[in-house]
Specification:
Layout: H1 11-15, H2 18-21, H3 25-40, E1 45-46, H4 49-55, H5 61-71, E2 76-77, E3 81-83, H6 85-113, H7 128-157, H8 166-170, H9 174-185, H10 196-209, H11 216-230, H12 242-249, H13 279-289
Antiparallel strand pairs: 1-3, 2-3
Helix pairs in contact: 3-5, 6-7, 10-12
Length: 291
C-alpha cells in the first residue's frame, strides 16, 4: 500500500497510554522510531532482530533484547514481519481519502471537459467548395477537441494524491480573494494593502492542497472567530497579516478547534493587584475618618 510522507499524530494517545507511561525515554524512542520506519516501509518491518536493533541504533544484543521485551506488546508479531494496529488503521484512512479525492477529480474533469456531440457547423461561403472545406475543417477541429477532452479525462483518472476540489474547478479564485480581503480589512489592524498576491497564493493552497480540504465557508467562519478573539477586553490574540494568518494560524480558529477562553488573558496568571493608594490620599482619608 502506497503511503504519504506523513501521518496524523495525537500526542495524548501516546503519552496517556498505560504501557508507554511506564517506559523510560530510550524505550519510548525505540518504539516511536520503529513506528516511523514502519510507516515509510508500507506498514510492516521484517521480523529480524539484527535489522530492528540497527534501525533503533541500539548497540548490544542484550540491551536490545531487554528493550524489545518491553515494547513488543504494542506490535503484532508474525513469523516473517511485525505490524502495528494503529499504523495499519491510519494507512487505510489515508487510502480512503485519496480514493475519495480521485473520484471527485474524475467527476469534475468529465463535467468540465465533456464535448458537445451536436456541434453546429456554419458554412463560410455559399459555394459548395468553400462549404465543403469549412465543414471538413470544423469536423477536424471537433475531432481534435474530442481527443483533447478524452486525454484530459484520462489524465484526471490518473490523479492520486493531489486533486483540486470540484468547487474550484468551476469557480475562479479572484472573487473569493476579494471577499476574504474585504472581510479581513473590516476589523484587522494590519490591512492587506500590497499583499493581494500573497493572500491569493495562501488561499489557493488552503482550498486545494490541505488534507482534508477546507471549504471557503469554513475559512470565513474561522476569520469570524479570530475577530471575536481580538475583541476580548483582555485578548492575548496577536495581530497578523492576512497571508501569514492563512499560512500558520488558520487551523486554530476553525470550528472544532477554536476555544475563545484560550484567548482571554484574564483567565491566566494571578489576579492583578490593586494600585497602591498614594500616601497623601491615605493621610487625608484617615484624618477624615477620625474627624
Amino acid at each position: 500500500m502506497k503511503n504519504t510522507p506523513a501521518f496524523q499524530y495525537y500526542p495524548a494517545d501516546l503519552i496517556s497510554d498505560p504501557d508507554v507511561m511506564s517506559w523510560n525515554m530510550e524505550e519510548v524512542g525505540c518504539y516511536w522510531w520503529l513506528i516511523s520506519a514502519m510507516w515509510l516501509n508500507g506498514g510492516k518491518l521484517q521480523n529480524n532482530e539484527t535489522i530492528l536493533r540497527r534501525l533503533t541504533r541500539i548497540n548490544g544484543k542484550k540491551k536490545w533484547k531487554k528493550i524489545w521485551e518491553t515494547i513488543n506488546v504494542k506490535f503484532q508479531v508474525n513469523p516473517d514481519c511485525i505490524t502495528h494496529k494503529r499504523v495499519t488503521h491510519e494507512m487505510e484512512v489515508q487510502a480512503e481519502k485519496r480514493l475519495s479525492r480521485k473520484n471527485a477529480g474524475k467527476k469534475g474533469a468529465k463535467k468540465r471537459w465533456q464535448t458537445d456531440s451536436n456541434a453546429i457547423v456554419l458554412p463560410m461561403a455559399n459555394d459548395s467548395t468553400s462549404s465543403s472545406s469549412s465543414s471538413s475543417l470544423a469536423t477536424n477541429n471537433n475531432n481534435a477537441c474530442a481527443e483533447n477532452g478524452k486525454a484530459m479525462a484520462k489524465e484526471a483518472e490518473e490523479i492520486d494524491d493531489v486533486v483540486f476540489p470540484e468547487t474550484l474547478q468551476t469557480q475562479p479564485i479572484e472573487p473569493l480573494v476579494d471577499e476574504l480581503i474585504a472581510k479581513w480589512d473590516s476589523f484587522a489592524a494590519k490591512k492587506s494593502n500590497g499583499s493581494v498576491l500573497a493572500v491569493q497564493s495562501e488561499l489557493s493552497r488552503v482550498l486545494m492542497q490541505t488534507d482534508p480540504v477546507i471549504p471557503f465557508s469554513d475559512v470565513l467562519a474561522a476569520m469570524d472567530n479570530y475577530r471575536t478573539a481580538l475583541a476580548l477586553p483582555d485578548s492575548q490574540a496577536p495581530q497578523h497579516q492576512c497571508a501569514n494568518w492563512l499560512s500558520k494560524h488558520l487551523k486554530k480558529y476553525l470550528l472544532g478547534y477554536f476555544d475563545v477562553d484560550h484567548y482571554d488573558a484574564a483567565r491566566y496568571g494571578p489576579p492583578k493587584k490593586p494600585k497602591r493608594e498614594p500616601i497623601a490620599d491615605r493621610i487625608a482619608r484617615l484624618e477624615a475618618e477620625n474627624g
